[in-house]
Every structure is written in C-alpha cells, then in structure tokens.
Amino acid sequence: MGVQLPRWVWVGAGALACVAGMVNAVGFLGFEHQAITHLTGTTTLLGASIAAMDLRASLDLAGVALAFVLGAALSGMIIQDAMLRLGRRYGVALALESVLLFASAVMFRRHETTGAILAAMACGLQNAMATTYSGAVVRTTHLSGMFTDVGIGLGHALRGMPLQKRRLMLCGLIIASFLLGGLLGAVLFARMSTDALLVPATLTGVVGVGYALYRHRLGMGTQS
User: Fold this and answer.
1) Integer Cα distance of 61 and 58 in angstroms
2) From the CB of residue 36, how many other CB atoms can be counted at a distance below 10 Å?
C-alpha cells in the first residue's frame, strides 16, 4: 500500500540524488570540508564564525547559505510549483543547474570561494524543484527527512501498523543513490580534484535533455 509512483519519478529521484551526492563530496573535499547540498552544518559554522569574529569565514558561509536560497528562488520562478508534475519546466531548471555546476568547477579551479557559492546555488535549485509527489516527500540534496521517514516506518512496523511501502522504497532509493554519488564523487576528486564537478554538471544536462524529450514525446502523444 502507499503512494503510486510512476517510473519517471523513481528514475529522476535516483539520478538527482546521485548528482547531489557527487556535488557534496567534491564540495566537502574542495571547500574546507564544508557541506554544499544542505545548510544545517553551514548555519552552525556561521554562528561559530560570528562568535569568533572571523569576518572572512562568516562572509563565505553566509554567501553559501544565501546562494542556496537564491537557487531555490530561481526554481520557484521557473517551475512555479512545489509538487512534481509532468509538463513543468524541469528541463530548463536542470539546464541552469548544469551551467551553474560547470561555472563552479571553473571557479574552484581558480581557488575562488565563488565555486562553492555557485555549487550551493545549483543545489538549492535542484532541491526546490519538487517537495512532494502524491504525499511522498521528494528531497534529493539531503537525507535527514529520508532517514526520518525510514525511522517512522520502522516504528509503525513494530506497532503492527500498515506501511507505505512505496514511500519507504523511495526513501531507500534516494539514500542509496546519494551514498553512491558520494562514493563516486570522492573517487573522482582523488583523480580530478574539483574538476570532478564536471561529471555531475554533465549528468544534470543529460537528465534535463532527457526530460525535455520525454515531455515533448508526451505532448505529441496527447495531441494525437
């Protein structure tokens, strides 16, 4: 029982979680061991930097947080909805994310903090592309909610309550895909340094084009 999820939701969620895992691994290893795809640790470190009156670190961390928010704002402007629905302009959003990640790789190569800022903006854009699909939470750049849902499901199982099996399977897919992305990102970073971001940049571009083609095909089928 549970929410019905079409194939494109499974494929998209897994692919984007893998991309986020790669971006976070490369960003973590290349930007003073700071997370890029989520802001909990960044906000904590920002508070600590302010307390220590470290102006440079405070500005860098605040820039990353602001960039993530701006990326989410761009998603809101482009897609104009928080629920996954075919026909939305996800291809445009993914193409923009790809451009941001390519630009981030260039800035990282120059040892510029702008690299982390652009990567955070790309992640904010991706994470805001969708909040839910038919009641299932779809977040692809951080895992706290996914692990929470798994824990809730475990609690329900222990009480003999019915499980939303597909929702839990989606959580498992996103967690596994993010982990795989982190592994790939670390391996690529060891070989390519921050140029490893070129791989997720390419993947988001490919996924964006794939969605655009799928959307076009869907539109042609509707017309016929």
Assistant:
1) 5
2) 31
Q: What pLDDT does residue 118 have?
A: 96
Question: What CATH number corresponds to the domain at position 124?
Answer: 1.20.1250
Report if residue 4 sits inside a domain.
no
Residues in the chain, overall count = 224
**Is 23 part of any domain?**
yes
What is the domain count for the chain? 1
Helix (H) or strand (E) holding 136: strand 136-137
Alpha helices in the chain (DSSP H): 7-30, 40-51, 55-79, 90-109, 114-127, 144-158, 165-192, 198-223
The range of the structural domain enclosing residue 136 comes to 11-217
Cα separation, 78 vs 59, in Å, equals 28
Q: What DSSP designation does 149 have?
A: H
Distance CA 56, CA 137 (A): 36
pLDDT in tens, 105-140: 999 999 898 999 999 999 999 988 866 554 556 788
Phi, psi (5° rounding) for residue 110?
Answer: -90, 5
pTM, two decimals, is 0.86
Q: Which helix or strand (DSSP H or E) is residue 133 part of?
A: strand 132-133
Tens digits of per-residue pLDDT, 57-77?
A: 999 999 999 999 999 999 888
Both tokens assigned to 31: 């930007």
